[in-house]
Amino acid sequence: MTKENDLLESKKVAAITTLKKAAETWPTSYVARTEIKIFTGGALSPSYMANLDCSGNSCEGMFKIGRHVCYDKGKLTDWLISRLQV
After folding, report:
1. Domain carrying residue 77
2. Please, which pLDDT band fits residue 1 given cuts at 50, 70 and 90?
């Protein structure tokens, strides 16, 4: 059982590292909802994020620039990490 737990932990660490590296290379300090699919490598869609926003289950730090909904990159990354399942 310990080897299984170690494997799961190493997978989680690898996923967290991948998310943080992706966030570091993102060109701005925010992510527009329309770009969420690119930011997450296709894991989340803009419509899914809109649904999460409406239900109050999205990440903190959402704001608007004109008509565009955006997310603080750091808070979005932390939120994605909190939702990781391995």
Report:
1. 2-82
2. low
Structural domains of the chain, count: 1
Tell me the C-alpha distance between 61 and 13, whole Å.
Answer: 24
Average pLDDT over residues 20-32: 95
Q: Which two tokens stand for residue 17?
A: 């590292």
36-42: which pairs have CB atoms within 8 A and are 24 or more residues apart?
36/71, 39/76, 40/80
Residues 6 or more apart whose CB falls under 8 angstroms from that of 10 comprise none
Closest CA to 21 of 11, 9, 13: 13
Query: What is this structure's pTM?
Result: 0.87
